[in-house]
Amino acid sequence: MNKIAVVTGGTKGIGKALVDLFSEYGFDIAVCSRNSEQLNILKKEIEQKYDNRVYVMKTDMAEQKEVLRFAEYIGEQDGEVEILVNNAGIFIPGQIHTEEDGVLEMTINTNLYSAYHMTRALIHGMKKRKSGHIFNICSTASFVPYVNGGSYCISKFAMLGMSKVLREEMKEHGVRVTSVMPGATLTASWEGVDLPEDRFMRPEDVAAAIWNAYKMSDRTVIEEIVMRPQLGDI
Question: pLDDT of 12-36, one tens digit each?
């Protein structure tokens, strides 16, 4: 029975880099996004490249019922969830006092509640086996506020808090929990920004850091990964 790595929001950026890397190391993959065409392209590309199984489902992670439907779909597959990467997220630039109504709710639903519900749905198997690793993709915005961060910063501060609580809860159950806090990474969030590509981190570098944390012995957990571009924050 193959191990399954679950990556939410996995068709672009860090998520896609993780799908590729986990597949390289023999994992089957369960991945979701809001774009079914991109999911099908990714499935075909990865399965042809690595001869593994890629389970895809179009999912709006801002909707609890869709999150739970994706989790149920994963449970129907032949394999055990070994890795969960809560990666789905959105970034809408703005300030608290000028943002449009509803931005906070949309951002919290996508960036925080999705991870909360996915974790609750999939963690029981990990606890039973006393094995598994949950990676929560936070941000340097989880601990460094910035003026144009608005609701995004709020959601990422909360995500880090959830991740810290989960780490404490899972100690006795043998499930490792890691908070990942990347700085500016070359993803869709930065499209249209007039900066050279080499000013950003590569998604593949973030994926490599996550893999290195996972492959340590089960006696050790890297609780937090903080990464920034070599030249610092943007």
Answer: 999 999 999 999 999 999 999 999 9
* Cα separation, 185 vs 107, whole angstroms: 19
Coil/strand/helix, residue 44: helix
* Nearest in space to 175 (alpha carbons), one of 137, 225, 119, 227: 119
**What is the pLDDT at residue 233?**
87
Q: Which residues contact 46 (CB under 8 A, 6 or more apart)?
A: 19, 20, 23, 29, 52, 54
From 64, 150, 57, select the one nearest 107 (Cα to Cα): 150
Distance CA 94, CA 17 (A): 28
Domains of the chain by start residue, with CATH: 3-227 (3.40.50.720)
Predicted confidence (pLDDT) per residue in 168-203, tens digit:
999 999 999 999 999 988 777 666 677 888 889 999
CA distances from 152 to 52, 96, 157, 159, 184 (A): 35, 10, 9, 10, 14
Q: Crossing angle for the helix pair 203-214 and 13-24, nearest 10 degrees?
A: 50
Contacts for 113 with CB less than 8 Å, ≥ 6 apart: 62, 64
